[in-house]
Every structure is written in structure tokens, then in C-alpha cells.
Amino acid sequence: MEPAWLLQCLLNGLSIGAVYAVFAMGYTLVFSILGIINFAHGAVFTLGAYLTYALSVGHFGINGLLADVSLPATLPFFPALIVGSLLAGLAGMGVERLAFKPLRDRGADPLLALVSSLGVALIVVNLIQYLVGAEIYSFPADIFGNLPMAVIFKIGGKPVAVRTIQIILFAASLVMLAGLGWFISRTRGGKALLATAENPDTASLLGISVNRFILGTFFISGLLGGLSGTLIGASFGISGPYFGVAYGLKGLAVIVLGGLGSIPGAVAGGLVIGLGEALLPADMSSYKEAVAFVLLFAILLIRPQGLLGGRLEQKV
Amino acid sequence: MSFFLDNYGFLLVTVVQQALLGLSIYFPLMAGQLSLASIGFYSLGGYVAAIMGTHPYFAPWREALGFCIYPVQWFFALVLGVVLGVAVGYPALRLRGIYLALATVAFVQVVNVAVLNMPIAGGAVGIFGIPQAFESRVDYIWFFGPLFLIAMLLVRRVGTVGAGLPFFAVREDELAAGAMGVPTTRTKITAFVLGCALAAVTGAMSAPFLNTWNARQGTFDASVTCLAYVLIGGSRSMWGPLFGAALLVSLPELLRPLKDSRMILNGVVLVAACVYLPRGIMGGLGGALAVLRARAAKSQGGPA
Q1: Is the minimum CB–CB distance between B116 and chain A shorter than 8 Å?
Q2: Cα distance from B113 to chain A (closest Cα, Å)?
Q3: A134: phi then psi, degrees, rounded to nearest 5
Q4: CB pair distance less than 8 Å for A252 and B105
Q5: Alpha helix locations (H) across B161-261?
Q6: Pick the CATH number of A3-302 from 1.10.3470, 1.10.12, 1.10.357, 3.40.1000
Q7: pTM of the prediction?
């Protein structure tokens, strides 16, 4: 193996893996509090990408209801990214109110939340299609102003290229993960969140408003989803309203690989899958979409609790 | 009558076909195992039939067998379903609850990528022009109808005869069932493989019915839709999959005049059904019946 090739793969894998980690963290937060998978997370990811696109470009193509509408003003990419992610966070709160809270209030089978959250995902995805059509949207090449497209350096005479967007993916993901880590371990709100995750009943006895924290968790989860959706969209283009579905499923592989409900596990899982995809030999690239799921299946058979998960206890 | 069949015959056949997929999820659920693998087996079964129906290699078979090629296709799909079901189920059923569900989601995705990469399956375009068994689509009820009856009889047998009670024992409490001497692993695998085989045969029957077959038949969304049939119909009743499929298949047809916004309403229906019918249609009916009976008993002066 050539060092230049290996380094290129590692860089590619780290940048995409970091985004997977941010996205998967959205699943993890909800899972650690409710013990259920939010199948609408992929739709929020898609929504975030479209929102940022709308804010930074201002208008959409010729199909859909919004064909002739354009925003009076547009934002530069980074402010648009932040506003778009915050709006996706609000959408995450909407998911909780529509798909999760009514079921909790009625004491329904937790399995039903899988279906109701998928129902919300259907609504969001088809609403996007209805409004802006199913075509591919790519962010314009000059969204980062006059930064160069890529940095190229040489190792052993072979060129290694790092695209600017890759650096941005990695940096934005690191900032997000660090911020989240600080929030959870250093602030009162984060501690309350952990307490709610540990035991909602006890937390509520201790004066924590559980419903408010669940809502807050969905906000953060939606924010992470929208941010990662925008980053992936800026890197590879938005390939239609269904583009979040594949990433939504891949995110599931990430959290199971790392250990369901484990926050460091989501980071580890994201990096492992990103690197696994990047290290796949070029002649097998059509199998890239299967890497995450083969890894998922393998880890479930070898170590069902995931790389960093705690021991699974059997209830008697 | 003929007007009705012309307009709604296809819809009726589709309801039975989708109810079969619902039943294929209901089987493992009877033993308490949430598996979303069915749609992968449905996809593979369809490919078996599509390849045997169109590939030149099978041309002599088709000539020799005539109409009997269809049962042969079902048989091959059945064998594939059972063999692969045991191979996947044996390791996967060590897992419980959400882990098993996610492992089966992974299985479905791997099947999808594998199929897309197999030249014989026609890549992303898939296989078209699959020979039709009947002139009218409505006649496919002679395929799906008997299969549905057989599947329902199996469910009934499993649910009422001694041989089937282990299913429910494992569903209610796996550890206790094991302690009572129920072979839990074998029970879970039987339930899982029954579902896989049913889905594979349904797929083999559906390929000629739908005329084309491609990887979109086996998407994740489709597998959750099958789960929705069971949950919205009522996950504790054998009639649940049929009622759920009838509601969720016919509703989009009734909403057809709404065109593009139809899919949005589909999502609204899923959410509303989860919120307002948390025990499914059958569960809701059962609850309503119990209330009526209690009222009747009260009005007769008996103990409420």
C-alpha cells in the first residue's frame, strides 16, 4: 500500500466519518432518553439541507409549488448553515410533538413510535417534494467565497488532495461535537439531561421537567441532523427529497456499531464507518453502500452491545 | 358486479398481496420477535420468479412446463426463503427487541446492494416484461387467495394447537418459557423462517403480477409499511394484517384525486392511526365490543 493512497483514504474517511458521527449523535440523544429510534431523523437531515439551500441561494428550480418564489435577501453560507440548523432543530421539536408525545401520553406500545415517526418522515419528505420538486440541487461552487477548492500536497512524489469542503466538514463536526460534550458534562442543563436519560421518574421527582427536557433533546437532535444534512448536501449535492433515507439508515448502523445510547460510541462508530467506506478498494466501490450494514451485522453477532456500549443485561 | 371488479378488482388483489406481507411480519411477532427482514425475502423471491420467467437459460423449462412453471418458481423461492431464513435467523435471533429489528434492517440493505450489483438481476433498471400468468390482473387472486388461506390456517393452527402455544409462551416471557422446557431458540427460528418463506413465495407470485421487478421492491420504507399493516390492523389479532393492509392500501386510492399531495396525507394517516388506534383496528374493535357488552350486562341488571 502506498503511503499517499493510505493518507488520502484516511483524510477522506475522517471528514465523512465526523459528519456521520454528528448525525448519529442525534439518534443517540433521543435513544438514551426515550429508548426508541426516531425514524424521522433522516427527514430532518434532508430538511436541514433544503433550508440552508433556500437561505443561501434564495430560490428553487422550476418544479413544485415554490417554483416562482424567491427570498428577498440571502445569507452567506455559514450564517445560513447556522440558521438552517436551528430551524431543523425546531422541526425536531415538531417531530416530538407529533409522533412521540401523543403516544407517550396514551401509554401506547413503544414500537408504534417507529411507525408514527416514519409517518412524520413521509409527511416532511413529500412536503419538500410538493414544494420544490424532486430535482437535484447543488450548492454553487463559490459558497465559501474565494477559498481555493482544494489543498494539494505531495508525499513521496504522489499528490494528496484535501478539498476545502472536507476541511469544513471535519472542522464543523469537531466544533459541534466539542460543544455538545461541553454542554452535557459541564452545564446544569446537560446534567439534567443525563439524569433524565438515567431514570425519567427519579429525575421528575428531583424537580426536572422531563417533558421539557425531552423537547430540548429533540431540538438538539434536529439541530445535529440539519447541520449534518447541510454539510453532506454541500459536499455531494442534494439528490432530491429522498436523499436523507440512505443516510438515515447508515446513521442507525453508526449508533449500533458504537453502542446504542453511548455518546462516545456514536463518534467511534461514525469514524469507523467513514474510514471503512474510504478504505474500500476502488474496484469494489459499488458495494460502498453496503459497508455500514455489513459492519452492523458483524458487530451485532460478535459484540451486540457495540464497540463502546455497556454490558447488555437480561431482564428476569 | 363486473363494473366493481373492473374498477376495484386490482385493488382487492393488491390488498391480499400486501396482507400476505403483513402476515410474514406477524409470524415472528407471534413469538415476540420484531423482524423487518420480510421485504428482503419478498425482493429475492420476486427475483427468482423474474429470472426464471425471462432468462434465456430457463427457456427450455418454460416450454416444457407451460403454466406449471409458476408453481416451480414458488417452490424455488420457498427453498431459498427457508435456507436463507435459517442462515440469517440462527445468528440474528440471539438478539432481542430493537437489536434484532436493526439487524434485519441491515440484512435488507445488504440484499438491496447485492441485487443492484448482480448482472443477472438487471442492475438498477431491474427485470421487465415478466410473462403474465393470466390475462387479467384480477385473476391473480387465484395465486394470492389460496396462499393467504394457507397462511391464515397456519397462523390459526400455531395459535390454537399445542404445537403453537410455545410461540405465545416465548412472546410473553422468553426466560420463563425456557425454564418451562420450551425450546426457545427453535421456536423463534420456526417463527422467523415461516415469515421468510411466506414473504419469498409472495414475492415469486408478485413478479408476474407486477410485470417488472427491481430493487425498489425491497426498500426500507416498504418494510416499515408492512410493519404498519400489522400494528395498525392490530398486532395481537391474526386478522390485523388484513385489516391494516385494507386500510393502508385502499386509502391512497381513494385519495388519488389529490395527486401530488396524496403521499403527504399517507403520512398523516400513519401518524393519526398510531395516535388514535394505539391497539390497532382489531384492538379498537375488541375494546368497543367489551364496552358494549358491559353496557348490555348493566342494563340487564347483571354484574357490570
Answers
A1: yes
A2: 6
A3: -105, 10
A4: yes
A5: 165-172, 174-179, 184-210, 220-233, 240-254
A6: 1.10.3470
A7: 0.84
